[in-house]
């Protein structure tokens, strides 16, 4: 039975983008999204849809070209993921041990941990998006800022529940494609003790907290612009609106500590990248046409997954 593991709750942070003052994005109706990245090796081809989250709430994604590509493909490579299969009783035990995992150790409040000037900024944004929420003051900075960010995103008309991947999977199933899942399974044998240890220790999450506030204070409009650009298939605009390193600081707060090592998540980002590339190469070797979905943040910039393929002689064509 697959469940939402506590370790994945801790690990899963939204891929933040930097953005000007807050303004609601309004994108109605059906939108095509971006064109596909095309990777070729000989006569075989890999088509990649770059996904973005969050997207406009009222947008419906539909691409006739994607539908045609899927119908003519033999395999579907999903985004790389982390998971673990555990039984009901182990899951129940983990859930019980995870109670209070988001709270600051030693019953500390945010004002006891966050620098005074940063805390003053937090109070202004908290009032704007969370109102008089007293419980959140007991929450670790990384989780408190994440909740604040989610509320702000909703307020400007965006959602993380984009349903794009679900729609792709539905089309792939209908066309009877082989599903290739690049998945790294977590060793859960030490998870209970790791959770207990995590609950007692401070983590280096103040940079994540501060950068989240930076985004909400001055850069949110670009997020709205990015969502609109994706919906309308404007890749050049997406490239222009650079991704931030906010997600990196938040992810590293979790991954660069004993918790990540105890559950086998050290170097997880590199391992996920390598696994996805390995599965893609295998599919390109055996299938005439392969369709894949990958976060657009992993397709743009110097750290693009596809640059690794290009360096090995694969031909990569970026949509415009």
Order of strands across the main sheet: 9-6-11-3-2-12
User: Which ranges are low-confidence, i.e. pLDDT below 50, for 5 or more consecutive residues?
Assistant: 1-23, 92-99
Instruction: Output the radius of gyration.
Output: 21 Å
Strand percentage: 5-15%
**What is the string of helix and strand elements?**
HEEEEEHEEHHHHEHEEHHHHHHHEHE
N- to C-terminal distance: 42 Å
Question: How would you state the average pLDDT, rounded?
Answer: 81
Q: Give the overall shape, derived from the CA principal axes.
A: globular
Number of DSSP strand runs: 12
Number of distinct helices: 15
Major sheet details: 6 strands, mixed
Helicity, as a percent range: 40-55%
Total domain count: 1
Structural class: alpha/beta
Which keywords apply here?
15 helices; about 45% helix; 12 strands; about 325 residues; 6-stranded mixed beta sheet; about 15% strand
Chart the SSEs and their pairings.
Layout: H1 6-11, E1 29-31, E2 37-41, E3 44-51, E4 55-56, E5 59-61, H2 64-71, E6 75-77, E7 81-83, H3 88-97, H4 110-113, H5 116-129, H6 141-155, E8 158-159, H7 164-174, E9 178-180, E10 183-185, H8 191-200, H9 206-218, H10 220-231, H11 235-240, H12 246-255, H13 258-262, H14 268-286, E11 289-295, H15 305-311, E12 315-317
Parallel strand pairs: 1-5, 3-11, 6-9, 6-11, 7-10
Antiparallel strand pairs: 2-3, 2-12, 4-8
Helix pairs in contact: 5-9, 6-9, 9-12
Polypeptide structure, described:
- The model is unreliable at 1-23 and 92-99 (pLDDT under 50).
- The protein has 15 helices and twelve strands.
- The chain is 47% helix and 14% strand.
- It has one domain (6-317).
- The longest helix is centred in the last third of the chain and has 19 residues, at 268-286.
- A hairpin with a 2-residue loop joins strand 2 (37-41) and strand 3.
- It is of the alpha/beta class and 320 residues long.
- It has a six-stranded mixed beta sheet with strand order 9-6-11-3-2-12, with helices on both faces. A two-stranded parallel sheet has the order 1-5.
